[in-house]
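User: My advisor, Dr. K., asked me to get a structural model of this assembly before our group meeting. I'm new to this, so sorry if the format is off. These are the inputs:
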Amino acid sequence: MTAYAALTGHFSRIAAMSNAIGILQWDSDTMMPRGAAGSRADSLALLRVLAHDMAVDPRVGDWLGAAEQEDGLGDWERANLREIRRVWTVETALPADLVEASSKAISASEMAWRQARADADFPALLPYLAEVLKLQREAGAAKGATLGLSVYDALLNDYEPGGSAARIDALFDDLAAFLPGFAEEAIAAQQRRPAPVPMEGPFPVEAQRRLGMRVMAALGYDFERGRLDISTHPFCGGADNDVRITTRYDEADFGKALMGVIHETGHALYEQGRPAAYMGQPVGQARGMSLHESQSLIMEMQACRSPEFLAFAAPLMRETFGGSGPGWEAEALWRRYTRVERGFIRVDADEVTYPAHVILRYRLEKALIADEMPLAELPAAWNAGMQELLGITPPNDRLGCLQDIHWPSGGWGYFPTYTLGAMTAAQLFDAACRAEPDVLPGIARGDFAPLVGWLRTHVHAQGSRYATDELLTRATGRPLDAGVFKAHLARRYLGAA
Amino acid sequence: MTAYAALTGHFSRIAAMSNAIGILQWDSDTMMPRGAAGSRADSLALLRVLAHDMAVDPRVGDWLGAAEQEDGLGDWERANLREIRRVWTVETALPADLVEASSKAISASEMAWRQARADADFPALLPYLAEVLKLQREAGAAKGATLGLSVYDALLNDYEPGGSAARIDALFDDLAAFLPGFAEEAIAAQQRRPAPVPMEGPFPVEAQRRLGMRVMAALGYDFERGRLDISTHPFCGGADNDVRITTRYDEADFGKALMGVIHETGHALYEQGRPAAYMGQPVGQARGMSLHESQSLIMEMQACRSPEFLAFAAPLMRETFGGSGPGWEAEALWRRYTRVERGFIRVDADEVTYPAHVILRYRLEKALIADEMPLAELPAAWNAGMQELLGITPPNDRLGCLQDIHWPSGGWGYFPTYTLGAMTAAQLFDAACRAEPDVLPGIARGDFAPLVGWLRTHVHAQGSRYATDELLTRATGRPLDAGVFKAHLARRYLGAA
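Assistant: The format is fine. Below is the predicted structure of the whole assembly, which you can bring to the meeting.
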């Protein structure tokens, strides 16, 4: 057996373990009865330790050295070796005791966060969050030393391989200068139009589910390799060949679940479209979180908040819920689903104000990781940033710096990928529409094949073959910039040509 | 750390792995989309190999030797050491290559069986089944050599620790002499009464599910540590603290799902009632399959086909399905659920004819394991046995020797536990009714606490502390015999006092 074959066999076993963990995690969030939480935590902890042990197996280093000398490997195999070396380097950079300490600190801090958020009590979270932050700094330093990156960039690279704060600073400064004024204009333009008509519910869960599945099918989701279920926090998870999404239903407003289902379906299409021959290999994985978020936002924001989609969806909605009257016309629905409103909560934000929430978090986490600001000052700095970027100040920390789980759960360096994803979505969707003139007419007919076919070819089936920038350049002719995103917003919200 | 503590820590990890496997297996049978079957098989195979590696860890032998010398261990700890030595001895008796060969032969044979059963084509299964049988003989010989047991008894011991063919022969010969004549009498008595009134369906799945959950709650099932779902073949599975049961619904006949739910709830009550302090330890496991089956049959056959239960259930059924008329009276329902009929299929059989199905399989598998009969002669021997024990001959092998998955899937030595379970159920239920006079009056009120309380104390909470015979003697005053079971049948089907 060649060293390359030994490596791929080993990584197939790691994939089999990851798939087991993925399904158990899905089960924890959708099916598991409450009394099983303790036993489940034990099972997941055991499997994660075993997966980590497999990932840092010293034989991987030997196989890599030998395989990199092998003749006759093709482009994909070479790219797979590059990705294997990358993930192995990152995994082995972390000392085992830091992995364990971090895992324990995160468990404690997530628990403290749930209570602190409910009580709007930041000081109660502070010591737990400080411990997580300290260990994140250590982890970033350990990985950064190995990879030759700053501490923040090393953390960011877990979610966005090849990403850097220098690059993000430039993109975000551009947006931060543009958005506050733009949001004001968009809201002013909106106020000159009539307010949306309230829709008469309730909208039964079973009917919402039927509509969601019908739209998933139209988008090209493969139900032979996935499911739709319910969870408190919607997500896309599961395993290779078993990509499961979730939503939550509000009987007073079917739009929330529908747009949520479309968003998660975008993630799922990426996962289901990864290259079958490399499904369990590092080169077969999705490229990074900004590209992943771009796939969900292409569906939710670019495609399905378009007038074309609502022309297709309006009759389906009327048929599903027996709706009639002016509020159920495509034009009224489009106004409803493109409404701009300044609010405190990131996950409820529209696409115009969302980047402000992200830029705020990105600036704060960078300062905290660099120790340029005491953690105790986070609430004040948060509120000042909200005032600066959105012109509003949260009345308490539950609606402020306690709203997200990312920091308490060790996800430092994750936030910027949301807005990188929104910009990437605009740039990719624009390129798809130019390359395939039938993309928007197709959507108006409920035929997503022209769009998804283009995404399959240029994104999904590429796995991690190329770096993000190279993939984007091959697909759109240039690396990421904010230009197309800004043009998209201007066209949609100000009616600019 | 003491050797005993090291052992229990190790077995807790094995339990965490078993729990992961249990949930993934449950998911495969209830939730998994078809396209995930291949990836899931890889994940389960990996986890099973890892679980086996943990079970045969050579440190276990060292820890056992040291722990058995430790002072200060209580009765439960000593019993745990005895069980750990037992399972470790069995696991290590099998050479690793035999485990692997057996696993592959079983996969191939299960696949061949599905097709062969559909086609009623035994010759198509023959070579696959022969391979499984050969490897089962080898496994039985390896374990038998270590345990000092015959090949058949060694296989039986996987399901029924301490069981032996000599003991089963005596019990089954007794029953085989009694049952054919008894079934004839019962059917004759039944024919003198009016035939059951057909019930007017359909009975919607959602209503059946509500009724099932209401009865589960009455039986004492803990929904905080389990779930009810749907699968093709009903089962009780899942994990410690997460005991999940399944059923299947027939909209033409709600009784099938209801009795199935009650049966699986009996299994689940045993699992949920195991000693909390030893949940993940060998001594905390259920004692064996005959006792397990006794718990399901106490609920399904002893308690819930009684006139008392149907007096409680009849109004619930009428209320759930809006039923009315003579067919919905408790007496008519009781006649319906205690109907005796000779049929070809084991899983559809009533409690009078069921033992004949089991005795047939037991005699055949014993002869096949001992190589006293060529496997090619199985269909003819099967049909002859059906004629002798039940007076009917299957028209083809789909309704004959191809109906069950047990043999193709390597479950040799399992069948007798069904009928041992039926006899054990009768003996335990009789003892419970004598010890707790409120058992039957309670059931008539829908209050199962007197019955379940007695079972908790005498069976569930004992885990594997005692050998089966000792447990039964402590609970009922004597080891298992067929007497109470025969008396139960006579009382119910012939109205004997």
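One thing worth pointing out at the meeting: Chain B touches chain A at residues 12-13, 16-17, 19-20, 23-24, 27, 31-36, 38-40, 42-47, 50, 222-227, 239-242 (CB under 8 Å).

User: Perfect, thanks a lot.
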